[in-house]
Design brief:
Chains A, B: Pathway: Amino-acid biosynthesis; L-leucine biosynthesis; L-leucine from 3-methyl-2-oxobutanoate: step 3/4. Two copies of one chain form a homodimer. Chain A is an alpha/beta fold. Helix content of chain A is about 40%, strand content about 25%. The complex binds 3-isopropylmalic acid (IPM) (2 copies).
Chain lengths: ~350, ~350
């Protein structure tokens, strides 16, 4: 498309700051003949305090019309835990059927990793985004009494598992290593685990060129720190994917570099791109936030919309910028954004 | 007690090999006036293949009479995933109400860690052992069809959460740092998360000397690799505890050193001690298994039975042995066991 109609949800804490830099880089990378139109949505803690709303139907309806959504971060200590997460962020993922939560992990040269030996890390986690323990199917009875019972139900469907597993196989088939690892806990969660494992084994027949592997989630965390180079594409459920991708971010230079896309591959609804990090209220307004994760999320956004060349330009710019970073002279959020914008334009 | 009546479940793979060394060290450390009696139970893959049984009522009944249980490892690729885990290991944990799954993590000097900078790690995870997603409350319908739905239910009770939280506060109060971190995911699993968070906040009033902290499980994995020295006592649910303790083992020198106790603090049923690692069928019979995790589990066993001095002797012996280990000249399972036995006896 020769135009991009983008919804922007800056959100809370450092969200607006990193989104500003993401948009700066996006404007800089787009050729003159691609028109960029952005519409900001006031959603998050401020809106909730002002009106009690998290994501009203009217906003959801308007959001549907855009080509894609760029989101900064959601969450503030002044709002009870879960209100904005369930009422806004997860509501968007579910309403727009973002069943592929795509989270690439790569250890860029010259970036800090807590791992000795700097392993060669380059994998992508395909996290299911619309099922599992995230469905919001739980409750409690006798709440607040010594007889309270609280439940959380993980719901997994063949429909939901098969589509994300197919997506993961497609991605694995397109990568040089062509390897897909399923992560679950099928020795304990036998019913959901059986569905996931059987689905992978069945679809694997259609992808003889892709090798497959299975790991329990606990064992997977071990390999993330001892042998992360063994991974290529990982497919896993919503909760395991949440846990593993924070760990992946930590070993590849930190949450300041981790990008993600909440993707609706069919294009029925707009996909949504966001840094993996949260709103970090403790550093909001200080200029310390690293906008790189948001900038890399913009690259995923461009790729999703078919602008592959521009996506690569951004990723190359980030690579080059990181290679020249000097930890001793930190830059502000805006300075990093400026540097990246200059690189992609140049 | 001046005698120990121990049930031993060697189990599968390297289980029998590491248990033999654990018993060797146990015999060596006990003073002459403490009588040790052991009874071996044939449970695991062999038994299941031979009889179809995982843990018959008769065995469960006999096991009840012992002072404690030492378990090697359970699991074999020839048995469908989940059969031995649910039918034997978890059945024991649930039947004997092992609600405190105690997993200490310490980076001993001279041991390999994948982390650069060798942080000072010394924390203990108190993992709930009888609730959550491990209750086996799940199922599937239209199994094997494109319309399959598979569920797993996490059940959490005030009764179950409070008792393990109390245990964790007691442990935190007895340690120098006196810090307790609750790990959960209360922004998504709001019902279970609310129960856990409220329970910790309430019991905290009774322990003003203990400082408390809360982390989402995804964020906790980040700190495990970037700042593990921040943890003292961690309390968490069954599944999060499973995941975090494998990661903890990985950063503190590997699963070959990670000990655990499945504890029934009331003493209603025997507690069970086991290495965190699995049966590792790939190295069974090669003499490559490190029995140290089992030996450290024996130390936890002795401490639980009131033999604190002997527990410390074992832990000091392991420390001293690790300090002198030379990665270039690996020893066999039995050689490590011999060396540790010699140290504790000497
Ligand atoms: C904020 C929270 C609901 C969210 C999640 O758990 O998915 C976040 O951790 C993430 O990974 O995007
Ligand atoms: C074997 C498996 C059932 C077990 C668990 O998940 O508890 C193991 O991983 C552990 O941590 O002891």
């Amino acid at each position: 498309a020769r135009s991009i109609d983008l919804a922007v949800i800056p959100g809370d804490g450092i969200g607006p700051e990193v989104v500003a830099e993401g948009l700066k880089v996006l404007s800089a990378v787009l050729p003159g003949d691609i028109k960029l139109e952005t519409t900001a949505y006031d959603l998050g803690a401020r809106r909730w305090h002002a009106t009690g709303e998290t994501l009203p139907d009217a906003d959801l309806e308007r959001l549907k019309a855009h080509d894609a959504i760029l989101l900064g971060a959601i969450g503030d200590p002044s709002v009870p835990s879960g209100v904005l997460e369930r009422g806004l962020l997860l509501k968007l993922r579910f309403a727009f059927d973002h069943y592929v939560n795509l989270r690439p992990s790569r250890l860029f040269p010259n970036t800090a990793t807590p791992l000795a030996g700097r392993p060669d890390i380059d994998f992508v986690v395909v996290r299911e985004g619309t099922e599992g323990l995230y469905v919001g199917n739980g409750g409690s009875m006798r709440t607040g009494t010594p007889a309270e019972v609280a439940t959380e139900v993980s719901i997994n469907t063949a429909y939901g598992v098969e589509r994300v597993v197919r997506d993961a196989f497609e991605r694995a088939a397109a990568r040089p290593a062509r390897k897909l690892t399923l992560v679950h806990k099928n020795n304990v969660l036998v019913h959901a685990g059986h569905l996931w494992k059987n689905t992978v084994d069945r679809i694997a027949q259609e992808y003889p060129q892709v090798s497959t592997d299975y790991l329990h989630v606990d064992a997977a965390t071990i390999f993330f720190v001892t042998q992360p180079e063994r991974f290529d594409v990982i497919v896993t459920d919503n909760l395991f994917g949440d846990i593993l991708t924070d760990l992946a971010a930590a070993v590849t230079g930190g949450i300041g570099l981790a990008a993600s896309g909440n993707i609706n591959p069919a294009g029925t609804f707009p996909s949504m791109f966001e840094p993996v990090h949260g709103s970090a209220p403790d550093i909001a307004g200080t200029g310390k936030a690293d906008p790189t994760a948001t900038v890399l999320s913009v690259a995923l956004l461009l790729r999703h919309l078919g602008h592959e060349a521009e996506a690569v330009r951004i990723e190359d710019a980030v690579s080059a910028d990181l290679a020249e970073r000097d930890a001793a002279t930190p830059r502000t959020t805006a300075q990093i954004g400026d540097a990246l914008a200059a690189r992609v334009a140049g």
